[in-house]
Amino acid sequence: MKHHFIYILSIICLLSLHSCNRFDNFDEPASMLSGKVTYNNEYIGVRGSGKKIQMQLYQEGFGKKDPIPVYVTQDGSFQALLFDGDYKLITRDKNGPWVNHRDTVYLTVKGNTTCEYPVEPYYLIKNEKFSINGNTLKANFDIEKITDGAKISTAFLLVNKTQFVDDVSSINRVNIQNISNLKDMQIEMDISNISDPVLYARIGIQITGLSDYLFSRIEKIR
What we know:
Protein name: DUF3823 domain-containing protein
CATH architecture of the largest domain: Sandwich
Radius of gyration: 25 Å
InterPro entries: DUF3823_C (IPR041186), DUF3823_N (IPR024278)
Pfam families: DUF3823, DUF3823_C
Structural class: mainly beta
Distance between the termini: 81 Å
Number of domains: 2
Strand content: 35-45%
CATH class of the largest domain: Mainly Beta
Organism: Bacteroides thetaiotaomicron
Number of strands: 16
Domain DUF3823: 31-119, 123-220
CATH topology of the largest domain: Immunoglobulin-like
């Protein structure tokens, strides 16, 4: 009886190992989708920290209704490791500093794949220049209006000691309001109390009615 029990136990163990091996042999996703959120082939600067801006991927033909979240970095780029197949890419509803069109981009992922997701921003920050004179950081820039439907409530200058700069990743901020002229704008910041040897700067604007800010490129200023 004892030998019979040991024999049955051995069979169970072998079946368990076989089952584990079957699961271990499942393929992992190996194709990298790399993309950017753009307007006229220009990237859109957004907040990169806190997974604030999200795209949503839906895979065709698998009956899965929940989207695959894809997070956008501060330069408008995104990446996702996927299985080969057909996908639909859209923005998350009411998320991002652009018109909430939520257009669908159809993708076929086969190996490493690149794509662009076009959006329509309300505004763009253009011709930004940063300069330091003594203890004053000066940012000069223009704002280009792309489409009607929203006004600018605030423009601001941010600095940080790392190359990650946005509304939650900064060590100083200066706001300007009551904006009437979008050309030749200027914001000044006193940096006399900032002793960090490396400093990065970025301009942002807050658009009325949107929870997400639009940002310029990031520049190392010292």
